[in-house]
Predict the structure.
Amino acid sequence: MNLGKLVWRNLLRRRGRFVFTLAGVSVGMAAFVALMTIGQGLTGEIRKQAQGLGANLVVTPKGWCAYEQISVLTGEQLPEAIPLAELEKIRAVPGVRSALPYLNEKTAFRNQPVPVIGIWPDEMRSLQKWSVATGRYFTAADERAVVIGAAIAQQFQLQPGDEFTVRGKRLPVIGVLREAGTKDDIATFVPLSLAQEIYEVKGMVSFIAVQVIDLEQMEAVSLGIQEAANVAVVSDKQLLASVLAIVGTVGAAMQAVAAVGVLAAAFGIVNTLLTAVYERRREIGILQAVGGTRRTLFLAFMLESGLYGLLGGLLGTALGLLGAYVFGPVLGDNAFTASLRQSPAPAFDEVTLIITLAFSVGLALLAGLYPAYRATRLSPVEAMRHV
Amino acid sequence: MSDSVITLECVSKTYGRGAAATQAVADVSMRVARGSWTAIMGPSGHGKSTLLQLIGGLDRPSAGRVMLDGSEIGSLDATKLAAVRGRKIGFVFQFFNLMPHLTAQENVEVALWLGGKGQGKARALDLLGRFGLRDKARHQPGMLSGGQQQRVAIARALANDPDILLMDEPTGNLDSAAEAELLDLLDELHAAGKTLLMVTHNPAVAARAERVVQVKDGRIVADTRHENG
């Protein structure tokens, strides 16, 4: 006999109560783990999208809100607010390697919203290192054509030679881009001039992506652009930080809700163990009579509590990961994630597992403190009086 | 009496305070010789069990001194008192007080573990074997008769080879056959040199002891020594 064996036998005595208490901890932890992994997956996807932008600085109209900044990363529709004439001023700023205009619009195709992005085809291809899976890329003769992302081709069963309509204008699909794993997969691309014509925003673009020659000089280039043109400039890192801040706030709020669930489960442990102390009073007295110290009793209840935390944490993690993979795509299906190439895959690693288990066990041990203390306060005579 | 293993000096125990105070044991002094068999008798509610609990360190006296082997136990802290209970004293109760979810063997092993003798499977089986319960080692108390349960309780009480065996109505819940078996067993333990101190209502059981102490209203009112002991 040893402490572990005695505790394990005690734990399994009331199987129903054991199962329901464990279920409480597991469900709470599962919700916590699921939301955490979905949140981490989303963060990872956003970072990937930011890298896919291929720019160091993003030139936007002054006074853009955070949602519009996020839309730069996600490819959502944006107001056409920068005159193309500003582009030349920006290109002339010392330290600017390239400056490419984007016109982010949206069209309905077969009753589904599809991003339409007006670009400079040649410059864009060299910046993004796009390659074509089927068909061909724009040539000088293809002023009225469309190149589509891989996911769009798959979603609408389109291939080169098919027709795509942008705001009622019929355009031939000339090529399908190779899958890149970024927002480009769920977008369609047309030459900037054509997009401006169709959307009747002649001479205007949504934003301008800038590459600098020397990253050390980014701050100076940013100031130079703002002096040269009537625009705002945000670095890709700032853009990413602001998006992550928003996503992080939402994620933290969701995790806080899940943590309340875990806290409720911890109260379940307190309740279960207090009931156990009450039910086992006589046995606590017997243990004391045969030489059990207060320390032994305290450790026995703390170990029992810790086991609820450990088992609940492990089970909850497994359930949470399962939930994240099964329900994550549904839960993550919102206006923001819809603009990503696909619902972000949940992200979970060893560090997160350790943190999760430490949280679960730590909270369970806290929950066990009071019942364990109560057990040690019982006098053997009083305890054995209960039959 | 130089070979006293238990000494009580003016021991009193009062429960409650003020008008609600109840004196369970009142100014009791006595010595118990090593290797003796003493029975404590008296009406219900007159302090017999309380006296046994004070001697066994399960409770502390309100006044006076309780000494085991010349050392006062009333002033020991909870941990040291638990160690004394685990090593020097074995308890046997009327309702056996076995852990219902553990097997007979595990009930004995718990005492071995708490007494610092490790897991002691072999010793637990050996003890159960001594009391004819080897084949019941894996049975839980609910699957054993009253007599068998009491023998398991005695095996547990003897797990750490204590000098003193304190028994509170050990035959109170047994039929006559099981009672006779238990008394024979106690005879053996007495012959082996154990100090037995037993609370009982039953004069026939008390008659097996060398000495009978009568308690009334928390005081010793008679102290008789038998020749048969």
Remarks:
- Chain A has two domains: 3-48+243-384, 62-230.
- Chain A touches chain B through 25 residues (CB under 8 Å).
- DSSP finds 13 helices and twelve strands in chain A.
